[in-house]
Amino acid sequence: MDEIKNYPDNKLTLIVAGSQGQENSALTRIANGEHRDVKLQDQDVVVFSSDPIPGNETSVYELVDTLAIAE
Question: What Å distances lie between residue 2 and 44, 49, 55, CA to CA?
Answer without folding.
Answer: 20, 25, 36
